[in-house]
Amino acid sequence: MLSRRLLRIKAIKAVYAHFKADSDSLITSEKNLVFSIDKTFDLYHLMLSLIVDICRYAQNRIDLGRQKRLPSPEDLNPNTKFVDNRVIAQIAATQPLFDYLERRSLSWGGSPELIKKLYDALVDSDYYKAYMASDHRSYKEDMKLVESFYLNEVDNNELLEEVLEEQSIFWADDLDFALILVMRTLQGARAAQAELELLPKYKSDDDLDFVKELFRKTLVNYKEYLGYVERFTQNWDVDRIAFMDNLIMVTAMAELLAFPSIPVKVTLDEYIEIAKYYSTPGSSVFINGVLDKIVDALGEEGRIEKTGRGLL
């Protein structure tokens, strides 16, 4: 399921896109936010199916080898350990996965060169060679091979990133999140299962309401909240403060004020971590200092009201 951190990032990006597009429609921007979230969930399904396409490519190579006019002994008696991998078979048998992909018109059919290069990289890897050379066959070994493929061949693959960006601009920064979901799905798999259990889009029914409300509160109160940021950055050249820094701090402030059940520490920790990846070097330290002052000011004004554990 999509984490709250990802949803926070989506909200920040939606606010950023709203301002950069000079949009005057909150409703349209909110629809784009939800669409972006849906696309991340699409990517999770697409990435989970990738190893199946790699396996089918391998099977096709075996079939072509057997059909040669003068097949070699290796062509006639190929090592089928990879194409018989039970984890890949489970994924291939997961009908809800392929129903979803068909419904959303998603596939790797238009990227044969990517499939070939990923297969070649897999076959050339030491972990694949060791897997194929081993006479031992176990579900655990099959799982390790699949996990190694995603961790070694898929992560930070430039060609894959190019293919994804061509398919959707919303996938530019989503691959890491999709891979986390794939790995979580694999970790939940068991040998006795006929198919994998897919993750739900949201952990709870409140998550979609959370990200929509966070987006709205940030956008509607942007000028007011930015005033607090400027109040505690008086010694800084305001023009030199990154726009993304301001967005992160304003969104954090919206969360502090609009969600009484979320502890202050949770909010601060989340946005400081987000700043490490989505703003300038050193921004997290700067944002941490400014948000601490904002929290103190809001507390003195009696504006931060937390319930239950949020009081801590």
Explain what the structure shows:
- Helices cover 68% and strands 0% of the residues.
- It has two domains: 184 residues, no CATH class; 91 residues, N-utilizing Substance Protein B Homolog, Chain A.
- The longest helix is centred in the first third of the chain and has 41 residues.
- It has 312 residues and is an all-alpha fold.
Short summary:
The protein has about 300 residues and is mainly alpha-helical. It folds into two domains: about 5-185, no CATH class; about 220-310, N-utilizing Substance Protein B Homolog, Chain A.
The helix fraction, in percent, is 55-70%
Largest sheet: none
Strand proportion: under 5%
Structural class by helix and strand composition: mainly alpha
Poorly predicted runs? none
Can you give the mean pLDDT?
A: 93
Tell me the total number of β-strands: 0
Overall 3D geometry? Answer: elongated
Rg over alpha carbons = 24 Å
Q: Count of DSSP helices?
A: 15
Number of domains: 2
Task: Determine the N-to-C terminus distance.
Answer: 27 Å
Order of helices and strands: HHHHHHHHHHHHHHH
